[in-house]
Amino acid sequence: MELSDGxxxxxxxxxxxxxxxxxxxxxxxxxxxxxxxxxxxxxQLLRIQNPSKILEIGxxxxxxxxxxxxALPHVQIVTIERDTERVTAAKAYIERSAAADRITVIEGDxxxxxxxxxxxxxxxxFIDAAKGQxxxxxxxxxxxxxxxxxxxxxxxxxxxxxxxxxxxxxxRKRTMIRNLKNFTExxxxxxxxxxxxxxxxxxxxxxxxx
Length: 210
Known about the structure:
By secondary structure, the protein is an alpha/beta fold. The chain has helices at about 5-10, 15-30, 35-50, 65-70, 85-95, 115-120, 135-140, 175-190; strands spanning about 55, 75-80, 105, 120-125, 145-155, 195-200, 205-210.
């Protein structure tokens, strides 16, 4: 039996004034941020893993970076975003948060950023950027993840589109969904990772590096 969305929502953790402001800003400006149930689940997984360094691909306005930093008081986060307006908003919000000294924003296309410039190994990577590029993000940044580290990947369901035959997907989104399906099949069979879906929010994929 499936739990109702309303029942799940009743257990969402309360947020501070800054986060509520960011949620309102994201809704008003049509900026996608992680669903509340999903970010709560992600943060609980991160608490269990207890990483000291996290790399985030897709900052948007900094919402998930701040949420992760609040959940892990000692974590250092590097987050990459290519949209200049979103970078500006993210930096402003992060500066107002209690985690400003633990979050570094890098402006640029994550597929073009020189990973040598990051120059560190991460315990976890959170990917929440262009869905059709997930495999390319994974291949570029997985080498920066320590053995035993985890890659967390959001929006695997793509609001139900991933469950459809490609002929039933709107034409403008078919390439993205095809790439997402191909990535899913590829990572599930990858010998260097143990992967599993968490059916929360818009679908969260966990990939444990062996």
